[in-house]
Design goal:
The chain is an alpha+beta fold. It contains 4 helices and 5 strands; from the N terminus they run ββααααβββ. The protein has helices at 20-34, 38-41, 45-62, 65-77; strands at residues 2-5, 13-14, 85-88, 106-110, 116-120. A 3-stranded antiparallel β-sheet has the order 2-1-3, covered by helices on one side. A two-stranded antiparallel ribbon has the order 4-5. Strand 1 (2-5) and strand 2 (13-14) form a beta hairpin. Helix 1 (20-34) runs antiparallel to helix 3 (45-62) and helix 3 (45-62) runs antiparallel to helix 4 (65-77). The longest helix has 18 residues, at 45-62. It is elongated and about 50 Å long. The two termini are 30 Å apart.
Length: 121
């Protein structure tokens, strides 16, 4: 089972009720619709979908949930947002890129005034 946690959305969403490719596409649509920092970070979710869909298709062909989780984690790591997490049950030793976080170590937000505030973590 694969869970995705998104900031400022439901606590988590399960995207593995369909085929791997359909679940991945549903996740991309939801993130494009709901990810609060999409405009700020200028994220093109559909370009990222194109980049990682071959890995998802390979995972689906091989019926390998670990490869799916790895592809989804690499997709989510592109956001550089430690608040977006992937949870899955699979062999953690087999797919190491799932655990390489890509967070800048701080969060930024632009206020309506144009001023930018930053929080270090």
């Amino acid at each position: 089972m694969l869970h995705i946690s998104l900031p400022r959305l439901r606590s988590h969403i399960i995207f593995t009720r369909k085929s791997y490719t359909k679940s991945f596409h549903a996740m991309v649509r939801e993130m494009d619709r709901s990810y609060v920092l999409k405009e700020w970070k200028d994220i093109d979710f559909y370009a990222l979908e194109d980049k990682y869909m071959p890995l998802v298709e390979e995972a689906e062909q091989e019926k390998d949930p670990a490869k799916l989780a790895d592809a989804v984690t690499m997709f989510c790591n592109e956001l550089h947002d430690n608040h977006v997490r992937v949870g899955a049950d699979y062999d953690f030793e087999k797919y190491s890129s799932s655990f390489m976080l890509r967070d800048y170590g701080f969060s930024m937000v632009q206020l309506d005034s144009g001023e930018v505030i930053c929080r270090m973590h």
